[in-house]
Specification:
It comes from Gallus gallus. Keywords: Glycoprotein, Membrane, Signal, Transmembrane, Transmembrane helix. Pfam families: Ig_3. This protein is of the alpha+beta class. The chain folds into three domains: 99 residues, Immunoglobulins (Immunoglobulin-like, Sandwich); 81 residues, Immunoglobulin-like (Sandwich), CATH 2.60.40; 197 residues, no CATH class. 46% of the residues lie in helices and 22% in strands. The protein has a six-stranded mixed beta sheet. A four-stranded antiparallel beta sheet has the order 10-11-15-14, with no helix packed on it. Helix 3 runs antiparallel to helix 8 and helix 4 crosses helix 7. It starts with 5 loop residues before the first helix and ends with a helix. Bound molecules: 2-acetamido-2-deoxy-beta-D-glucopyranose (NAG) (6 copies). One 2-acetamido-2-deoxy-beta-D-glucopyranose binds next to strand 5.
Amino acid sequence: MLLHHPVELLGVLLAGLLVPLKQAAEVESALQRRVAMVGSSVLLAGPHNITLIHSVQWEHLNGTASHTILQYERHNLTIHMPYIARAHLHASNGSLLLEDLQESDSGIYRVTVNRAERESLTILLDVLKPVSHPQLWSRGLVAKASGEVLCEVAEGRADTFTWKKDGQMLPPDRSYHLSGSLSVLHLRVAKKSDCGSYSCNASNGISWQETSLNVTVAGLSPPLQDVLRISVVAVVFAAVSGWGIIFPVCQSEKLRIRGELWRWLSAYTCGLVCISSILAGTAGILWMREEGPSIAVIVPEIFLLYVIVITFLVAFTVTFQPTKLIQLKSTADLITSVPSHAGSPCPPVEAHSDISSLSFPWPAQRTMGYAAPGGVLLVVVTSSFHMKNIHQRHEEGCTAFMDVTTLVVSTAAVLALPILAIFLCYHTTQGWLQEHDSSCADKERSFEMSLPISMDPDLTS
Ligand SMILES: *[C@@H]1O[C@H](CO)[C@@H](O)[C@H](O)[C@H]1NC(C)=O
Ligand SMILES: *[C@@H]1O[C@H](CO)[C@@H](O)[C@H](O)[C@H]1NC(C)=O
Ligand SMILES: *[C@@H]1O[C@H](CO)[C@@H](O)[C@H](O)[C@H]1NC(C)=O
Ligand SMILES: *[C@@H]1O[C@H](CO)[C@@H](O)[C@H](O)[C@H]1NC(C)=O
Ligand SMILES: *[C@@H]1O[C@H](CO)[C@@H](O)[C@H](O)[C@H]1NC(C)=O
Ligand SMILES: *[C@@H]1O[C@H](CO)[C@@H](O)[C@H](O)[C@H]1NC(C)=O
């Protein structure tokens, strides 16, 4: 045939396309669907309205291959190899009973009666394992982040998964199936209202199983929990060092802690301020890494860095180069200056010394004096800011707030020990002042002796 017109060509093409479609539709409508459980038996019925049966043939079509199961011809029944023990024919109506089903028995079964193509019937058989109890678990359920709840069946193939939250059906578009065994429920921006009891019902043609899970959305991601812990520890450090700063100031002028003990208290207090500033700075950096940079965090970070440097230098000098400190004061009026400064750790606060004799310029001295109390205040303010933000973030989830009591108590106990030891030593010294006998005081006195000028006339008397 010659085609002279494109329209004719199109018609031919369409006809070519439509014919197979029509055939497929016929097959589809003729197809019966059956499901059965592994290990059970199934009776596949032959064509209904056939009164006289003289031949029957059953075939199994899986994929493209076709296997004859049995042939029946004038009372002569032949059952083929793998089916000998499992297949039974009801010769009166052409029905096939298939026993001990396996998953490999799934596929299309075709029966042809009386060798007539018209009297054939196809049945689609699905042999399924019953679904096992689904496993439910959640992934990444942190407030404001996207999370998911997963439902997986280990055994058997599930055709349908349905989800419920607190007994209410969830719309099917909230979840999707990844395979016959896994369904994922998405929580796009996890929030408090997503907390609750979720259940997943996995079912196939022969069975269903349901499992529930209590889902909680954590307010704080692990890094934010770290920020909280670090901030809390920073505040404890600051509080203990604040105690070390305030305590001597509150003592009466005459009984003030001084000498070697004062040196250790100063070094320890400055060291604590330095470490608490490092901790507060770290908390700020971790916070910004999670939440992005913000000016409200960067500015205190700069001041904290400043406090870290100053308090480190002071603590280092007081600990390892006390002579520098003494030198620094020796040219000054020591009798008046030392007792007055003794009250305030991070010593070169109010050195009434000659400007020219100092190893640091005068403004530096002043800044150092404010560094410790200022650092304590800064650490408390920035850490409180972080803790407030973290508490707000925590409120967006539904888990219990992190318990930091143990952390606070243990840190405080450990940090307070050296201060307590210093005070204990100091009080023993006070006792010695009356009784003139104490090892602590001896040490203190030896330090006093090393000073070019006696620090306190009371002591040497
Ligand atoms: C065919 O016959 C057998 C027994 O003769 C009977 O158990 C079965 O139900 C029949 N099947 C149909 C589809 O009628
Ligand atoms: C069986 O009955 C259906 C209608 O119920 C009919 O369409 C079909 O042709 C019949 N088959 C035979 C073999 O008589
Ligand atoms: C078809 O079924 C037979 C058993 O009836 C099995 O041995 C064979 O592996 C199956 N083939 C496919 C492609 O599933
Ligand atoms: C039955 O069929 C087998 C082979 O299919 C054949 O050898 C045998 O002669 C047949 N018996 C009768 C009685 O038709
Ligand atoms: C689970 O799903 C199956 C099939 O959809 C249904 O028959 C069954 O009632 C469901 N179970 C529950 C507890 O809703
Ligand atoms: C979920 O929590 C409720 C109470 O809050 C409890 O009664 C229930 O047993 C829990 N369910 C599971 C699966 O843990």
